[in-house]
Structures are given as C-alpha cells and as structure tokens.
Amino acid sequence: MRNPLDPPINERCGPTQRVDTNHARRADTNQARTWIDGWPQLARSEIVDRTHALGRVLAETVAAPHDIPPFDQALIAGYAVRAAATVGAGSYTPLTQPLAHAVTRGQPMPDGADAVLPFEATTSGPTGQIEATGTVAEGDGMEPRGQSLRAHTPALSYGRPLSPEALGLLAQFGHQTVRVLCHPWVRLEDSANTPLLAPLIKRDGGIAAPAGTEPDLILIPGGAYAQTEFALELDGLALRPGGEAGLGRCQNVPVIRLPQEPLACLTAYELLAGRLLRRLGGRPCALPHPTCQVPLTRKISSAIGWVEVVRVVLAGNGAEPLGSTEGGGLVTACRADGFVIIPPGREGFGSGEIVTVHLLHARDDDW
Amino acid sequence: MRNPLDPPINERCGPTQRVDTNHARRADTNQARTWIDGWPQLARSEIVDRTHALGRVLAETVAAPHDIPPFDQALIAGYAVRAAATVGAGSYTPLTQPLAHAVTRGQPMPDGADAVLPFEATTSGPTGQIEATGTVAEGDGMEPRGQSLRAHTPALSYGRPLSPEALGLLAQFGHQTVRVLCHPWVRLEDSANTPLLAPLIKRDGGIAAPAGTEPDLILIPGGAYAQTEFALELDGLALRPGGEAGLGRCQNVPVIRLPQEPLACLTAYELLAGRLLRRLGGRPCALPHPTCQVPLTRKISSAIGWVEVVRVVLAGNGAEPLGSTEGGGLVTACRADGFVIIPPGREGFGSGEIVTVHLLHARDDDW
To answer: What is the pTM of this model?
Structure first.
C-alpha cells in the first residue's frame, strides 16, 4: 500500500522530469549526488573589506604586485658578510670580516653581502671588529629577491576560501578589499526543525534570502506548511535515517524536501542539502567535519543498496555504535562524538574494522 | 655573542621568575605548553539568544525537562498494532488487525498498541479493513517513553561547544536563551602582522578587549611598539620557525611575544597563542585544523630538541615538504595544503613515513 501519510506530490510547477511515488523504489544516493553536483556554483560576487572576509570564498585571482621577497633578504639573524671572506675561519683561526652588518630575519641584505653568518659563528676581535669562527657558503641564511614569487604571478586563486594566512598575504599585497562569492540565499520554510537547520545553513555559508528575491536554494522541512510549488525529481532515497527526503525544483531553483523527524532531517541535511549549499557557495563539497580513522568496537549491519548513517561515541581507541540508526532523535545526535557512513555497496562493517568517523567536535589531542 | 637586535627584556613589571637572555639556551616547547596549560579557563559567562550561540561554549549543564521521547512513539511509518494480533500472519494468511492506526515516525502510539507494522507488511481486506501479511514483536518500530533520556538527566554538559545539533536540542527543550562562556578579551598590539593575527584570534574565539578593561591575553608581535610592561618567563623557544617567541605576564595577565617575520609569527601563534586563547575560552586546546595521515614524498631533517613546523603540499597520495622551514613567508603558508609538526625527540621523518598533516582547508573528498 502507498503510505497514506506521504506528502502529496505537487506537480503544479512545470513538467516533472521524474516522479517516483513508490518509496520501495527509492533513488539511490549516487543519483542524488549526481543531481546535486549538476547545479552550478553562484556567479554573484561582491567586494568586502578584508577585515570581514575570513572564511569567504575568493572570486578573483590575486597576483603578487612585486617580487616576493622584494629584495635579497636575511633569513636568519646574524652578520651579513661576503661568504668568500669566511673561507678558512674556525674557532682557533677567527677571520676578521671586512663587511659585517648585523641583520635580523626579513631585513634587506646590504650591498656586497651574499650570506648571513649566525651570531654563534662570530666573536669580537681585540679592537671590537667582528670575526668569523665558522664558514658560510654564498646564499646561506638569505633568500634572493623573487625566490618565493615573481611579480604578477598568481598567489591566491579564484575559489579559494580565505584563511588567516591568505588575509595576511592580501594585506602584504596592499589590498584593503577583496572580491568574494556572495553567500547563497536560502529560503527555509519554517518548521519545528528551524532551530536545527538555521545554524547548519549558517555553518555552510548560506543566509536567509532577502524578501522579494529569488532564492538560490529552497528547503522544505517535513511538517512545514509548504508555500512553494515544486516538481519532485527524486522522491525518497535509499538513505537511513533521512530517506523521506526529496529533491526537485521550482522553476530554476533547487528544492530539497527534508524529513520531519529531527535525526532524519539532520542526516538528510548533512548528506544532501549541506552539500548543495556548499557547492552553490563555492566551498569544498565534502562534509565539513574533521575525520579520524578508528576501529569499530562492534559490528554494524546495513542493507545493500542503502546508505546508512550510524552515530558513534569514541571509547578508548575505538568507535562504539549508538543504538539503532533511526532512534533517539537529537539526544542521540548530541550524545555522539561523530558518525560513520556505510556506503551502499556494503552490508555493514565488522567489529574491529577501521572506519572513518566524521567528528562533531574538535579532538583534544596534542601536537 | 648576544644578538644585539634582540628586543630588550623589560623587567619593570614585578619580579621576573625566569629570564633567559641566551637564545642558545632555549626553553623546550614542553615547558611552553606546561606554562600555557597552567592558565585557568575564564570564569565569566553571559546569556545569549540561542539563535546567536553557534560555536559558543556552554557555561551551564542543560538537563532534559521531561522524558525523551515524552510518550511511546512510532519509530517508523506504518500501522500501530498489538503485536499479539499479528502472530501467524503471512502473505497467504493475512490477519485482520482489530487495532490499526496509521502512524508516521515520531507520532505518539495509540492506546493499546505495542508495535508498528510497516505498510509493506499490510494489505486491504475485502471490506477495507487493514490486514497484516507479516508479524511484528512487541516493541518493534517504536521507542518507549524516556528511552533516549529520562527527565532531569543532563543532556548537554558545561563546556560543550554548541553545534547545530545541540542548538536543535536546546530548542526542543524550550530554551530561547543559553548561558555561554564569554569570548576572551585579547589586547593585540598593532604591527604589520595585525591582518594575519586578527582573523586567527577571531577563529579561536577571541575578541578585542574593550577599552578600559583588563584583557585576558596580551599579544605583542615583534615590530610592535610595545605599550605593555611585562616580565618574560620563557624567552626564546626551541621552535622553528617561531623560536623568537616569549611567554610572560603583566600582573596576572598572560603575555605572548610573537616574532616579527610573518611565517614565524604565524607558527608561534598556532602552537602557543592559539592554544592559550582556546584554553581561556573553554574550547578544545588542540590545533583546530582537520588532519590526515599520509606518507611523506621525501625526508625532512630536524634538530633533536627542537619542534620544527614544515609546510607541505598534498601531491598524489603523499605530502611533499615545501623548501626550508623558515623561508618564503606567507607565500609559502598560502601555497601549502597543511603543515607537519616534527616533535622534539625526532631528527625528522623519513621518505615514505606516514605523518599527520594539519590541513589548512577542507578536503574535497567524498562520503
């Protein structure tokens, strides 16, 4: 029997490319991923101040305005010398250095110097002159002009997320502003899952679509009073929990219907909606969680053809599965240290097998 | 000889516990870590709206206000039945179900029902009545009241960073606001490295100390005109790059002096200042980068007793070291995919040896 509680399929919005009303014939998750990865990245970009650009995605390629370093520079602190003048120097045969300018890292090398002699390899002569007690070869302890980067060579590529390092380099290049991709506009229809979904959308770089604009992505959680007319293209997935999800479109805007049960909603968001949102915004598509590889403390079973997402806690050096795939709601999600994804080709993982855990928080281990 | 370019040591601020002016007698990084880990977490907390709490650190323990689930609930969609009434049912022996309420996941179980029969295991009888074509055991497809969590049991512990899952659970518990640790107040003295350091501080949860307040942490980059009088306790570390760093205090506030050269400044921030900042704010101390384990494409040498931080690019399935430890500045930092930390007890890593790479960006690999 067809599930009488399934949401009605709405076909008012243009022709439907594929509607599968039978949940027993679910789309596999590879079809869903192909569908997601078929949507293009946003073309909209904006100029923002560098001091507000952390984590934004670069929408231009930034080249070095000049050679880096712009001059021959010291790489260590010491005395800039002519390497030839140190030949034969040693603790018992200190050699006076005709050229000996104290330099610190990053300072320009004085004219004529071609190496930096560390302070430890120097001593003071009887009249205060600097003497070498060791030798250096030409180029030691210094970095020639342009060695890191030649002028006008690309240093930061289009599409790169802006890290602190990249923002430091932009400042070094004299950029006060930077062109970045816009945040994708998301229309999230209101439901009991809004408090869960809003921070996920924020994490993945989405913002609420401004009133009166066409969004870049529409999310319709189960239980929301659907205000959007859309055509479902994939209805029901071989995903557990979260298989009630559906993928479709409203005119040219992608629409993802999410399950009502919170753990299923979360799982479908993570594997489907989050991926599409990151893709639209030009971020890496993969799940944003850090991962670790650990053995399972006991086996997990799964149905062939299904992707199953199992919450685990880290115990000792292993990952311990938490109860059933579908029970426990957000309590289970919050109790977990992470989750394991069982791919469709597997019937599960054996006890002791090494699995990839997607971690929900940073680990507190050390360098 | 003492390096004449070393910054003068300022002892105007109370007695100095340990001043080592000789950079050849550097403190090892374990001393630095012990010093860092001796500072206590902030005690200040504040109440914020749940919708602004993503990533903040919980400063209370939140208990379930009632049993979770609050009633016996369906875990799957189907017909809520009495399990006993399905005994003997099969495709050729369908059994009429006296009690058969359609339920979807998360709905309360009706009185008298003790299992959920999936729709696939049902059929319509001649008069439209629901018949079972399969059996269920008591408890199948449902979750008893309180199974996830009993009322008044802690669900989210003090000190937990607030993930989307945790915010969803707070909403489910009816919390509109939540008590979180304050952002640590950082006084960053201005220097050419401010554009690099400001986003690092932001990433680690610090904010600029409000005018007129005592900060929780003072950072003095090399080249800054030091406005702070402080006593150095560890001056110079066996860390490369970044060994010019110093650790000290101004009255009861920790002070970290950072090197002037950008790559050294970045490295000392990551291994020292970032750790202390995360610690003060109650976050996990460890480096916040995701990691991966890959083989080195060629060997890296290092001096015993020193921690060396080597930038690498990921190439093929391996990590390729980028030039020398200290050259290249932020260009090298931006070219790298990550960095490898060589611990003090090692003389380096061999070619082909598996190392932990701290990644500077999310990987684009798939589930």
So the answer is: 0.87
